[in-house]
Amino acid sequence: MKKITRIVVTIVVIIASLGAIAKVLSNNKKKSEEQTKIVAQTNATVSVRIDTVSLAIPDLDVVANGNFAPTQELSLAAEKAGRVVKVLVDEGSYVQKGQTVATIRVDQLSVDLTNAEANYQTARTDLERYENAYKTGGVTQQQLDQARLNVENAKAKVDQSRINLGDASIRATISGIVNKRHIEPGSVVSPGTALFDIVNVSTLKLKVTVNEAQIPYLSVGKQVQVKASVFPDKTFSGKINFIAPKADEALNFPVEITITNNTGNQLKAGMYGTAVFDFPNQSAVIMIPRTAFVGSVNSKQVFVSDNGVARLKIVTPGRVLGEKVEVLEGLNEGALVITSGQINLVDGSKVSIIK
């Protein structure tokens, strides 16, 4: 009997405990729902960041990098076959256009010229004899014409022999510095054999690229400041001599700048150079952060905060300058443009500004 009584008491205690637990859970649920309502009411506004629309002078100055290249460079090659007799310049030597830099053995070429000149004199003598004979009827017109043709052929061979003999003296075709010598005295060369690499660094080229925003302010002949990384304290004067009419794959426009080297030709081809494009006298325009646009600049949509309410505006964007975008129409100076949080906004949403 006592055992049954204990069981009943235990069951009653368990039931009472479960009832107490259920009551606590019910109270907690009510409190949670009340807190959720309070939070929902508190978060009825969307937190956003803003930027005040103002007039600003766009910073169009741009720095573009590239490598210096020579305005002229040439791999001088042999035009005739033969053995090199003399090499008259060495690497680092400065040569003038037309200067003899090497000679090839000319013995056979001299003999060829002597024979050609002798044949030419013989042909001239024969022509004089035929002309005299023709006056007395001793030769025909055909024989006289043939004698004249022989003189012309002989003269052409003399000219060719002189050219061949002249080709034996290798002459520089541009002025510059010998960057590399490929031959030594005694070298046997054939037509096309590389002899010298000549580089003219009195003027240099710097090829850079600029984006489309800068192109309207550039023109051929415009002066540009140029710096070399190895001479940080020196500034060189350059001039634009080419602007590509078509953009490259990255939608940038190649620009070529010519730079006059300084005394001593301190700038060398292959050095790293920087062109500084200066665009002064720009007018102040409305500029807003790129992040203000909904999605992208192409959407032409921005939100502004108007007395705690988000208003959707359609604007006309202009130039994109880094992280800033010019606005041509749709915004007035002093407006509060929303720069973050737009994903949660619709026209008319209440907003709270994050300081």
From TrEMBL:
Every copy of the YknX-like C-terminal permuted SH3-like domain together lies at 286-352
**Coiled-coil stretches, from where to where?**
106-164
Q: Name the Pfam families on file.
A: Beta-barrel_RND_2 (PF25954), BSH_CzcB (PF25973), YknX_C (PF25989)
For this protein, the record's InterPro entries field holds: Beta-barrel_RND_2, BSH_CzcB-like, RND_pump_MFP, YknX-like_C
User: Which residue numbers delimit the CusB-like beta-barrel domain?
Assistant: 206-276
Alphabetized UniProt keyword annotations? Coiled coil
- Keyword presence, Electron transport: no
Is the Cell wall biogenesis/degradation keyword given for this protein? no
| GO molecular function annotations of the record | efflux transmembrane transporter activity
- The residue ranges of the CzcB-like barrel-sandwich hybrid domain are 77-199
Where does it sit, as one GO cellular component term?
efflux pump complex
Family membership = Belongs to the membrane fusion protein (MFP) (TC 8.A.1) family.
The name on file for this protein is Efflux RND transporter periplasmic adaptor subunit
Provide the species name.
Answer: Niastella caeni
